[in-house]
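Hi there,

I know you've been waiting on this one. I reran it after we fixed the sequence typo, so this is the corrected version. Both the input and the resulting structure follow.
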Amino acid sequence: MHSSMHIWHIAMQASSIAIIVAGVIPCMRSIDRIIV
């Protein structure tokens, strides 16, 4: 039970990080275009 909850918590963190990265990458690319 406890281990499954721990895995669920890690999965939630990983999914939130993936969403953040997916949102940040286009912004970083646009910033690179502005700088270059």
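Quick highlight: The chain has a mean pLDDT of 90.

Best,
R. S.
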